[in-house]
Specification:
Largest interface: A-B, 44 and 44 residues
Oligomer: homodimer
Strand content of chain A: under 5%
Number of helices of chain A: 8
Helix content of chain A: 55-70%
Largest sheet of chain A: none
Order of helices and strands of chain A: HHHHHHHH
Number of strands of chain A: 0
Chain lengths: 192, 192
DNA sequence: GGCTTAGGTTAACGACCGCTAACGGCCCTG
DNA sequence: CAGGGCCGTTAGCGGTCGTTAACCTAAGCC
């Protein structure tokens, strides 16, 4: 009895395909019929699983944000006390996420404004907490740099790591290694 | 007689507002009535100036790409022979652009797929040439790094510099200086 | 064996949206 | 002062899209 999901549930299928389609053509650019077709059912059948198109997007965005935050917290706890190792671990985790879920990364910062007020607030709160993990550890490593600057730098490095959807080829390992070096290089320049 | 545009023409007004709205709510999320209202006319009046909504987006994206490329070429020519200065100049120019036209930056890599085939090919070609300017000069500075890696690194630094829409505060000068340092730091890590 | 529930189907409604049609004022020019 | 662009307007058409309604089938349960 494996604890891994053996077969993806229908909800998960739908979310996965919806993420792919939203990333490719934008939230408004994809119809529910299209999402349905992608999982082998048609149009309104989706409403047995989700309250509406908006609900799919909301679940996607909240899910990403939660996974990023909890993953980040684990990594912070694991290497607590060694800021250098914490930062490296956060970078590695973010790279893994960016490479594994390019579609989600794309949707993540592109369609946030399409959410209902409540969901949007939740997502933003989760994002903010995730950013704060990074800001805290970077400030430990660069105590002489102001907090606002560090926060901008963290966002900028996110932009660097999330550029992954735009790039082709080069193989998983090489891409990981390269992004790792670039991110460390950018943060290293904070004190120079 | 100044060579600067004294009053923006109506076309320019429309393009500017359309860029802002597209950036905020996405191409499909904005109606022509809304664009019209933003410039004080209503809905179908836009069709005196543009063939359609698609044409506005096309002109925006082609315009950005052309400005980036010609600006980049000038900078390359100005500092020719000194790769370090060329790279610095390219970075500075891209930062200026990113800070001056946040809306355009957002629309730039978000709505490319909404273009008609011909326009999309043109934009991609311009983008590719711009990237090549960067790749060439970075390869001069890091001859031992493979071309594919350099190209990925350039895209990643674009992601870093284009993260500008996400960040607040900190003042123009400080932001410029910070982004400059981060970009140089990232490229510097290519050889480490 | 009947009842319920889960998970589909097709038809259709209502809203919205891009775009066109038809029209009208303003301003320049001969 | 007549005429023709230029630049607007409002009305409305046609298509698309999210959503609901009504119905159907297969599986599990008492």
């Amino acid at each position: 009895m494996s604890t891994r999901a053996a077969a993806p549930t229908r909800r998960e299928q739908i979310l996965s395909e919806a993420a792919r389609l939203f990333a490719a053509r934008g939230f408004h650019g994809v119809g529910v019929d299209e999402i349905g077709a992608a999982v082998g059912i048609s149009g309104p059948g989706l409403y047995r699983h989700f309250a509406g198109k908006d609900a799919m997007l909301a679940e996607l965005l909240v899910g990403i944000s939660e996974r990023l935050l909890t993953g980040g917290r684990h990594r912070v706890a694991e290497a607590a006390g060694d800021p250098g190792r914490v930062l490296s671990s956060l970078i590695d985790g973010h790279i893994d996420f960016a490479l594994d879920d390019r579609a989600l990364i794309t949707v993540h910062d592109r369609e946030l404004d399409r959410l209902r007020e409540a969901d949007r607030k939740l997502v933003r709160q989760l994002q903010r907490q995730y950013v704060e993990l990074w800001v805290d550890v970077v400030r430990e490593l660069h105590p002489e740099v102001g907090e606002a600057e560090v926060r901008v730098a963290v966002h900028a490095v996110f932009g660097l790591l999330n550029s992954t959807p735009h790039l082709a080829a080069l193989g998983r390992e090489a891409t990981e290694s390269l992004l790792r070096r670039l991110a460390h290089g950018a943060f290293g320049a904070l004190s120079a």
